[in-house]
Records
---
Amino acid sequence: MSRAIGMIEFKTTPAGITAADAMVKTSEVEIVEAQTVCPGKYIAIITGDLSAVKAAVDTAVTTYEDKCIDSFVLGNPHESIFPAIYGTTQVEEISALGILETYDAASIIEAADQAAKTAIVDLIELRIAKGMCGKSYMLLTGEVSAVEASIERAKELVAEKGMYMDSSVIAHPDRRMIDTIL
């Protein structure tokens, strides 16, 4: 069995909660996060076996298609995705800091997965639409060239979906800035 992560993003809370309920009734999946986010949208992130996650997300999207903003299923997500979502990543040192912001919630997880698989970087945080009017961002660190390559790949991915907003790479950020992030 391969591990997978899936997500739905809905325009309204009632549709999102109903869709999330349908997902867990469809397949043996675990809810990682399910909640209303700014500006009144609803997200649900699930994990489980790839076929179960795919069936659950397909059910939610198909049944509530008119209210769905975006969705995805990722098979074999990078192992740093979950700690970054939970905010439990432990980073000892930041050589370079990469930041990427998207217009939506779903594309940031896909972008983070690609970034982490592009070069040797550590995901620090995935802020998924909380307090950001529906936008999301990720923070990652590593050597400057690795961070640049990872951010560039993530930028390309979200730009294809029209969800890219902004990004930057800071080589050797000041300790005072790092302290505000960690």
Note: The chain has a mean pLDDT of 92.
---
Amino acid sequence: MELTKLIKERRSVHQFEDKPVSVELISELLDTAVWVPNHRMTQPWRFVSIQGEGRRKLADIVREFRAAKESDPVKAQEIGQKLYDKFMSVPMFLAVVLQVNDNSVIAEEDYASASCLIHNFGLLAWEQGIGMVWETYPLLQLASFREAFGVKSDERIIGSLHVGYPGKVPAPQQRIPGSERLTVME
């Protein structure tokens, strides 16, 4: 697919088909996605995939986390179950885990580089007919969620990628052309 078309047609997908995604294909896509600018070549990332029955642990954590925020027990159960079902409908979770760097300049460079990596992955996946959405919800800070992904104390999850074959592709949202935001100084 032509790059311009691929960039403009990619969408964040929230609804997936009930169809597993090949770990081998995801691994291949990641092998290409890592070819991003990475000042100092720290390559501070690693990836954790959770799929199949492994999703139940995440779904249970989400259900308990959300239900605990609701004072009405009936409503808590309804909301918790809704989120549980939503998490179980995602074929694969792919956590992008970043090594924390105490140097703020390097930490920012690493985050920027890893963000490029996630975008590369999303484009490569879209080209293969796979959709995803990059989630940065508060769960990423939750000890039980981090533990489910095997995240160490000197690491952070910068994105929980929900990955699968699209069940529904959202319509495009208008973008302000970059040329309208361009300032030229001579």
Note: The radius of gyration is 18 Å.
---
Amino acid sequence: MAEVQAIKDDDTIRMVGHLLSIRCNPQMADVWHIGLNLALRISDLLSIRFEDIHDDRLIIRESKTGKLANIQLNTIAQQHIARLREKHPDHIYLFQSHRCQQLKNKPPQPITRRAVSMAFQQVGQELNIALGTHSMRKTRGYFLYQSTKDIGRVMKMLRHTSEGVTLRYIGITQDEVDKDFVSLEL
């Protein structure tokens, strides 16, 4: 499995969402758009229940780390979530599998990581980019770092404990750090 990277330009971000909607299904585009705005690991993103959303906040316990994620929802995330809640008022999960609804006597389940991964890979191949389930989280971290140059803020958002891990995760290379040193003259 190839390592995926952050998407580093707005046009590609928009194109990924568009292609997911038309090549796969609108639900995959919703995963992309909401995932970009929440910066959660895919397992946590897919496990979100509507009951985890309180007004403008999402409160969940991360499955990998056990840390509490208390995320204020931005306008884009709120709009997508409100539309999903209105469209599927009986759903338990934000990204509930439609297949489970067709099976009687089976409790509702979220869509699978595998389904999302396959959809993202399909679109990634079409765009000739390494796109995967971590791309949303990496992209959010990359854009926050580019706008603030504050690795501490990015670490806090991603709930990382190491600067080095965070820099590698969001795809900040030594060349980019070198450019920052050259361009900033005091």
Note: The longest strand covers residues 57-61.
---
Amino acid sequence: MSDQLTLAAETRDRVGKGASRALRRDGRVPAVIYGLNKEPTSVHLEEKALMKALMTGHFMNSVVMVNGVRTLPKDVSFHPVTDRPIHVDFLRIGAHSTVTVAVPVVFTDEDDAPGIKKGKGVLNITRHEIELVVDASDIPSEITISLSGLEIGDSIHISDVKLPKGAVPAIDDRDFAIATIVPPTVPTVEDEILEAEVAEAQAAEAASDEEPVVEPNDDDNHDDKITPQKKD
């Protein structure tokens, strides 16, 4: 089960771009709490505390208590240059609300997969997360899938995965694939020619960047002028 997180917040008296910029300059992050047929509440959070919560790796599928209000993070906006969080949306939920969350997938027992260990196959992951519909009080932190016994060409579908009790896939109209063991990539002649051309171009570029060697003239006078001569 995913851990419950707690964040302190203060109510925002002013909204708008100017007010939001002022908050961010003071190390705060604007946020809004909505849902449960109540009016949205504008708040702001301490950026350091929010970053600590984000660094847990399971912020988006954790219940977050914001000033005593049970919420589920729905969206975090980041600055395109600095990657600092600039806004957060929280959804109010009840203690046993049914919620849809994206739960990360973790693969285990790779050494016990003949297709990978002996066949040198590659695990091709098509879904790093699975959207599940679960009770808000029982959100899983991750879904573990064993690769034991899998051969090259074998696929893992959602029907092959044992989900936590009470959890069902959000996509229920097809048996979607999560990962496949694919054959190892064999370099072609075209790949080798391309690699040789790239190496030759890089060598030529490196040679052109070399500094010329400075050597004195060969005459016998004492007022030799120094002229740059390229290395052979």
Note: The chain has four helices and 16 strands.
